[in-house]
Amino acid sequence: MEGAKVHWFSILNSLMVITFLAGIVFVIFLRTVKRDLTRYEELDKEAQAQMNEELSGWKLVVGDVFRAPSNPALLCVMVGDGIQILGMAVVTILFAALGFMSPASRGTLITGMLFFYMILGIAAGYVAVRMWRTIFCGDHKGWVSVSWKAMGLRGGCAGKSKGGEGNQIERWIMCALFA
Predict the structure, then answer these.
(1) Among residues 120, 113, 115, 107, which one has the least CA distance to residue 92?
(2) Which parts of 13-132 are beta strand (E)?
(3) What is the DSSP secondary-structure string of 70-125?
(4) Which of 161, 155, 172 is nearest to 80 (CA)?
(5) Which pLDDT belongs to residue 176?
(6) What was the pLDDT predicted at 5?
(7) Per the record, what is one GO cellular component (predicted)?
(8) Segment 89-145, tens digit of pLDDT
(9) Torsion region of 158: left, alpha or beta (phi above 0 gives left; psi -120 to 50 gives alpha)
(10) Whole-angstrom distance between the N-terminal and C-terminal Cα of the chain?
(11) Residues 167, 145 contacting (CB under 8 angstroms)
(12) Top-confidence range, 68-72, 126-130, 175-179
């Protein structure tokens, strides 16, 4: 019984340390960004013209961050698949920590992982379509294709092919067989 208390205490202790360190990094990041933004807002027009050669920080990447992606379908599918894998990992770890899936019983953990992965394909499709509609400002065109790619295929299979329609179908079949 004592081992179980020490085990839970160690897990809680590790989580608290990780949360504390992540908070420190987040505060440092926020201070740096806030300082950069206030510095750039305070500059007037002539000082800005002199500083154009010396720009650093957020101003260098602001144009790249808000640019539309070159392959939005691939981005949406990859984000949806990432949510699916992250959700599967979190739910599996949660169920294992609560004792529903014991590593002592063979196959329970991997079966649970596969089950959660399969069920969370719905979440992957939702997130991918939601991101698709966000990128295209609510445009309804192409969301069905993105949804099927997110739920049925892996992210690397969703890109555009350069060899024509036959080449794309071959890639989809290969990805479905080996994914």
Answers:
(1) 113
(2) none
(3) SSHHHHHHHHHHHHHHHHHHHHHHHHHHHTSS-TTSTTHHHHHHHHHHHHTHHHHH
(4) 155
(5) 58
(6) 55
(7) endosome membrane
(8) 999 999 888 888 877 777 888 888 889 988 988 888 889 888 888 887 666 677 878
(9) alpha
(10) 43
(11) no
(12) 126-130
Buried b / exposed e over 119-142, threshold 16 CB at 10 Å, is: ebbebbbbbbbebbbeeeeeeeee
What is the rounded CA–CA span in Å between residue 139 and residue 133? 6
Whole-number Å distance between alpha carbons of 125 and 144: 9
Tokens 């994914």 appear where? Answer: 179
The token pair that represents 101 in the structure block: 């899936």
Does the pLDDT at position 1 exceed 50?
A: no
- What whole-number distance in Å separates Cα of residue 74 and Cα of residue 156? 8
Residue type for 172, please? Answer: W
Tell me how far apart the alpha carbons of residues 142 and 150 are, in angstroms, rounded to a whole number. 13
Q: What is the DSSP letter of 68?
A: P
Query: DSSP H helical segments within 43-71, as ranges?
Result: 45-51, 58-65
Tokens 């920590």 — which residue?
Answer: 97
- Residue 129 CA to residue 135 CA, distance in Å, equals 10
Residue 53, both tokens:
């050669």
Contact 171, 147 (CB under 8 A): no
Buried b (16+ CB within 10 A) or exposed e, 146-160: bbebbbbbebebbee
Of 21 and 3, the structure prediction assigns the larger pLDDT to: 21
Please give the structure tokens belonging to residue 60: 């260098």
Tokens of 116: 């959660």
